[in-house]
Amino acid sequence: MRNGSTLCSGGDMNSIEREWDREEVVVLVCEYFRTKWFTKEETDASYHFLSDFLRARETMLTGRPVTDTFRNYAGIRMQSGRIRCLDPDSHYSGMQGTKLQKAIVQEYLENPAELTNEADRIFEKYADHGDLLNSSGFDSQLLVKAIPIPILRRMACAAKKVKPERMTVSSLRYFRDQSIAQYTKYLAKGICQLCGQKAPFCTRDGEPYLEAHHIEWLSQGGEDSLDNCVALCPNCHRKMHELNNEEDVLFLKNVVLKRVAEP
Ligand SMILES: [Zn+2]
Ligand SMILES: [Zn+2]
């Protein structure tokens, strides 16, 4: 195993990085558990996102630019490897977690919801200041699944304020649409919003399989927004496109109204 990044070849004191703080470890631990069944490509995208996020956060906190090595992709990857060694589900070992990592993994295992809330608040806190999603460091090609839920929610909610015809870059357009679809599916929590049944199967990474559907079809002038999007099982999705029964449409509109009313 290589030495930690604190040992820099030049011996320059300025390049010696400070210890990880609680906020950093909390987001790393929660994102580790959220993404642990992702494909390698998706996990890599998540490391890139966390690196961008923690680097942007540091600049906000210190008012100074960070060094190239500060919380870079390689660093995030290594620390996530340490956290994986602390996961009782994992057969991966060989790296030692830090004292703080051990404590926070323990907190997560005892109460995942509470630690996830803490991580959500951290993402919210710095997304507010940094406009992270528009920063140059943020790669719009990044897989949507890599985006932590609070940031995904911001993107999906902000998306409706932008007129689709103004989106000239197709990859950005795709990415925006995906944020609405992905966040809609997240809100549905694996339950079809028309028939109320569980998703028929789970995808390879354990996510319930649902499809995003626009209540007012885009082809008929429907808005591409969170308020016009629901998550359906494949059967109900086919049904909507075959029949588009008025009562089903009204039902789904009501589902969305109730959903938006929730905090
Ligand atoms: Zn259904
Ligand atoms: Zn559809």
List keywords for this structure.
two-stranded antiparallel sheet; elongated; His-Me finger endonuclease fold; 9 helices; single chain; binds zinc ion
Distance between the termini: 46 Å
Our count of domains comes out at 2
Low-confidence stretches: 1-15
What is the approximate shape? elongated
Which structural class is indicated by helix and strand composition?
mainly alpha
Tell me about the largest β-sheet: 2 strands, antiparallel
Number of helical segments?
A: 9
Q: Mean pLDDT, as a whole number?
A: 84
What's the Cα radius of gyration? 21 Å
Please count the beta strands (DSSP E, at least 2 residues each): 2
Small-molecule binders here are:
zinc ion
Helix percent reads: 40-55%
Query: What order do the helices and strands follow?
Result: HHHHHHHEEHH
Strand ordering within the main sheet: 1-2
Describe what you observe in this structure.
By secondary structure, the chain is mostly helical. The chain contains 9 helices and 2 strands. The chain has 2 domains: 5-158, no CATH class; 178-261, His-Me finger endonuclease fold. It has helices spanning 22-35, 40-62, 73-86, 99-110, 112-130, 149-159, 170-188, 234-242, 246-261; strands at 211-214, 229-232. Helix 1 crosses helix 5 and helix 4 crosses helix 5 (112-130). The chain is elongated, with a radius of gyration of 21 Å. Residues 1-15 have low confidence and may be disordered. Bound molecules: zinc ion (ZN) (2 copies). Residues 213-214, 237, 240-241 line the site of one zinc ion.
